[in-house]
Fold these 2 entries.
Entry 1:
Amino acid sequence: MSDEAKTTMSSKYNPQEIEKDRYRFWVDGKFFEATGDEDKEPFTIVIPPPNVTGKLHLGHAWDTTMQDTISRMKRMQGYDVLWLPGMDHAGIATQSKVEAKLKEQGKNRYDLGREKFLDTVWDWKEEYADFIRAQWEKLGLGLDYSRERFTMDDGLSNAVREVFVTLYKKGLIYRGEYIINWDPNTQTALSDIEVIYEEVQGKFYHMRYPIKDSDEIIEIATTRPETMLGDTAVAVHPSDDRYKHLIGKTVVLPLVGREIEIVADEYVDMELGSGAVKITPAHDPNDFEIGNRHDLERVLVMHEDGSMNENAGNYEGLDRFECRKQIVKDLQEQGVLFNIEERVHQVGHSERSGAVVEPYLSTQWFVNMQPLADEAIELQQRGKKVNFVPDRFERTYLHWMENIRDWCISRQLWWGHRIPAWYHKETNELYVGKEAPEDPENWEQDNDVLDTWFSSALWPFSTMGWPDLNAEDFKRHFPTDVLVTGYDIIFFWVARMIFQSKEFTDQRPFKDVLIHGLIRDADGRKMSKSLGNGVDPMDVIEQYGADSLRYFLLTGSTPGQDLRFHWEKVEATWNFANKVWNASRFSLMNMEDFTYEDIDLSGEKSLADKWILTRLNETIEQVTKNTNKYEFGEAGRHLYNFIWDELCDWYIEMAKLPLYGDNESEKRMTQSVLAYVLDQTMRMLHPYMPFITEEIWQQLPHQGASITVAPWPEAKPEFHNETASKEMKRLVSIIKSIRNIRAEVDTPMSKQIKLLIQAEDEATVSELENNRNYLERFCNPSELTISTNVDVPEKAMSAVITGAELFLPLAGLIDFDKEIKRLEKELDKWTKEVQRVQKKLSNEGFVSKAPQTVVDEEKQKEQDYLEKQAKVKARLNELNS
């Protein structure tokens, strides 16, 4: 290696500088593109497509960094890796963003019309897709952009139509009038899992409905009195003796005056409340089912925006919550409402807009889920199952599938896959097909679009060219190998991909699904705009670099667990990267004109050489095993310990002896070992920290265009040396013990001391004599004796290690009188601290009134002071004896 090449590594680790142009080098070199090489086994990941609604957050960074780590390692292991990128149109979310932007301009989508509005959304999509790609670049994600997909591109839209039409023809998609979850803000239907239930302080309103032509009343209670305007019955249990005589009679509905029947239905719980319930079939899912059983009228009393409609009589035009207030007031005045009970209860909110969800009677499109769920469950039991990591999430998934409800798939939006159904303008005949009817002028297409998750559920195979079963990517790369996603969308997305894949390809969509948790702030709170505790990953990269962020995200949690974000931990990973940089720079500065061809590990090696090669072998095995198991934290721990503790703190320090020495063969061997170990270490670290490892690897003696396609390290049996490990362990124990003793008596390493080592046998003597150079370099003895029978001085500091005992004569270490005086002064200090804290703790007033945390803190201080006092006493006794 030339002197010019040696100096290209700057003296300071600057992540912004080394990360600046590296990504373009990788993309231009097409290192991330799947080759289709038949000699290589394919390995495939599809990215969970981010929504084109804004910036990527820390959760995206965590999720994609895991995928990148897996795919980079597999590429180095010789697989033909496809990591397919793409984005999701995100129907409600994206349309809401664009409509909000239009509102700022004083416009709405109706001013533009459907076609121009959709053009505006497509412009938004292009703008934010570019923004997301720029963030992918900052993170260093090894994506195959030649295969990038979008959920509304032509190929995926064709797949969506194919699935819809096929399911419809099989009777698994149907259209019907049902109670659905309605979002009055976005004015669209929601599926069950798009409803977030929150505890709310509400009220329970107790009312008396009068029985017609009678002095009797029947008591009912409700949390939503505004819906009483749509009551069409009161239900009681058929076995309830209190009400048997009333079944079939009618009550007069207060405020409205309409007569409604008292019906008997076993759904009613006799033990709950009065045992009688109001039935509002158009505004409650359970009432809807009761209404079907008793052929009750469905009276809808609200508009889609949550305001009251013409069926609400005098309350028409009021917002639903304003209507509630007015009805409560009117009922109180009439004496119908006799009690208002405060009660905390679960209220559904729209996951998208946050609005209180309204159970609402509507004509929608649904998927009949039971047959699809049964197939997916059977796949887990008898087929090639999806492996959940951690496996406990399989139970979560199966529980949901076993309790499945039909899926409402229509959304009252313009942005999305428009439902491929047409209605004849004259006959109202329904036509469902992949293409429009032959005489389109007589037909009108359904205005609704499909739920975003309908297209996302096809992502693993629609992106590969399906429904063309001969598409090259579909034949080669499906099923995919692993999906990485959070536990919060197992139901939204993972479950739907599994049952759609089983239905349409008869295969699992992926072999493994790696589940991770959520990123929380340092206090464990979920990151949110309202709390103002969110962290932009680009800000972290700007300050510490992508490698530091990546390594923190990867190693900070175990599969399935949440991750707490700490700035100081990111800084700690920067320090680790800086350590790697400085160690590599030092090594390169001492390789002179060393080339890849000069690496020769066949000659005589020192103990340090044999040991570091053995530890390299062991680290390769551990990192490979744990990364393959997705245990990134454990793999990172092995990498960190090997690089920081063993390579940097021990081997490189020991390597300075031959590097600075006069023995040319020892020097060349050390250079070979350094070059080889650093090369292999950079390869192991590369999936975790791609930028710094590429930069260093390019400076090292190497073969190949990029570390991204360099072979993954393999442990070499010829380098495994148990004897060297044991000898090095003993040597390190001696050096550490000497350093500890020096620190204890405040003797700096620069001061020479007498060292006696009493070995248990001649073999140990021989071993230590062979490594005398290390002992002399790192212990700095004025005199070193190694024997099975040393003359132990009366006054000496000692330490016991495996196979030997160390003695350091005190006379050479300290001034006795001076040290005794110092220790007496220190003993006095700790004695006073003990007395002070014990006096405080014996004060009953303090112990009873102070917060427990303060009391516990004082008790901890007492323990600490007593330990320090005891240590100083023991040391004084040693010196005085």
Entry 2:
Amino acid sequence: MSQPQSSIQAESDVPTPVTPASTYRLQLRPEFPFAAAEAAVPYLASLGVSHLHLSPVLEAVPGSAHGYDVTDHSRIREELGGEPGLRSLGAAARAHGLGLVLDIVPNHMAVPAPLRLNRPLWEVLRDGPESPFARWFDIDWEAGGGQVLLPVLAGPAESCDLEADGEVLRYGEQEFPLREGTAGLGLPELLAAQWYRPAWWREARTSLNYRRFFTISELIGVRVEDPEVFTATHAKVLELVRDGVAEGLRIDHVDGLADPEGYLRRLRAAAGPHCWVVVEKILARHERLPPGWPVAGTTGYDALHRVDGVFTDPAGAAELARRYEESTGSPEWERTAEACAREVLTGDLAAELGTLERQAGAELADAVRELLIAYPVYRPYPGDPGPDPQALERAASAAGPAAVAGVRELLLRDPAFAARFAQTSAALRAKSLEDRAFYRYAPLLSATEVGGDPGRPAVPAAEFHAYCARLDLEWPGSGTVLSTHDTKRSADVRARISVLSQAPEPMDGVTGPDAQLAWTARQTALGLGEVPQAVPRLAEALLKGVREAALHTSWTDGDEAYEATVAGYAPRPLDLPPDLAEAARANLLGMTLLHLAMPGVPEVYQGAETEYRALVDPDNRRPARFPREALARLDAGAAPHGPAEEKLALTAALLRLRRARPGLFTGYVALPARGAAAEHCLAFARSPGLVAVATRLSHRLAGAGGWRGTVLPLPPGRWTPLPGLRGARGDTYEKAYENTSGNTSGPVYEGEADLAGLLDLSPVAVLLRDD
């Protein structure tokens, strides 16, 4: 087992970076370039964030809506405004007291069209393994018979129109380089003489011989473990760090690298001790981040799962699972997850599995497969306990105890095999859980989120408090998130869906020829509610969902007749009944409060400072819309109107408080309530001066008769509510916390607070100590 960070850090060389108070994520794209981000800087500074977190800024495939398909590490993306645009954005941010955090992609590059955009790959395909760029990519030349399989053709090669034209091979509008001296050959001889083999895209599943990102053949793995490759692919980013343009880095998909810790140590040495670095690492519920990594923590999916889970009723979630499995005939979560892992490994990742089987030898091939399926985490690391005894027993039963022991011994003595096994494990977990099982198992969709545990979606309050205390002790600079560009449903959609765990009745009567899809459609519609373009947005998300679930259709083997029926499951906009809408409000505000007050560095996703309902990408990657006018009204003294403005008021107040008084957000002490409804209060103290109070499972609370005299014992001192959160008039939120010892609109609490009074106007409260 990993040791606690506190026991390691004193002896390690993990530096102390300059930690943001908070970050705000902006999704850059041609429709929202650097100039648009720069125009938003004054508003974002007024909101209270300390840093802007930018999606990838290096040159990418033309028109890319995300930027993770990098084509050139040496240039800033021209479609966004180029390097002058980025530096101008950085200067404007600094002028308003903000820093920049860059999202970087060390694991992979694009296999673009046109291919010339990726010069290193173009030269490898032209010059073969002797190219100086051959070391950039994980290519198994032997497995490909000396050629790189390029799965770019629409059908078998013999049926495709390939022709030589000077020094290139043409296929439609695509061009590929010809090996020197081969231009005059006839087509069969010419194709056989190249360092690559154009192939039907379906061949990638079984014959691909380069490492890729998950199952996306258009993204080729990069060997940043090679010092020369690291230097070449990071020079521009590190220049921006040295020049002060960027103060932090988010590392995309760190599990995909051959040697994550070695990479992070090289990055830390190059970026310096003050750069804030977080890694996109999906931690299982029981898993810890490797304690010696020289980073501030993760990007925050571990926090997302805990915040969601503490607002989920375990009894209701179990009842939903029972109803779902009964009405759909679907197996329980554990069986669903294992079946999806087996499907993905032997199907979508057959080429990656084949590479490992060849490395291990025929006698260990079955054990390689079974151990990959058995692993309970995305990727094994030194000190990881590995599969639990039951999973190991199943693997041994399928492949034989001796073979399983042989693979485990091979993992210890062969670093190259261990690295490739770990990389494949990460891809397998991502594709089988995030991109299949989470779409296939639908009793409570708010639980099927990155880092979640649909089989045990509820998080007890004690577990939440223990997680927060550990985070404050071990990784206080770690990121925390609720909505991202990768979440399948934004936090506010999940807040609405999770009320079903307290009241499953809206799921009564869900029937149809495809009960699984009907469950998904009903919950998604309730989560999205009455918003603009609800029906087409829902239909698009449902179509993506059925393709990912791969029960009746898929991305590679589509069933057009079935897919034509999917839109019919998208109901008209559904809203929650009033009692559940009030419970959703309590969830929305409670999740926001915990996220912004708990340990870590909270990130607000673009537009999510107000109510933000979005479904899976591309729905959640639309250009940002900022509630400037609403914030201006609140700052002028207007009372919040509706949950959207309540959330905006709460977000602005806490972001500004974090930026102005960071010392308040240190330490963590759980505060248990006392009385009949104590389980419905989730409260904690930060430092000696701040108390956060949230209502959990509010629908059940109302059904039981409310707070019924329940009180919250407080730390010593005089405590007053943060004024702006109680509808104060004539004062800005900024002034409210700058002068909390003066006149306030709320009462003064000493010793304890009656929860019925404290939470009479809002399901959440923030208390500040007068001194």
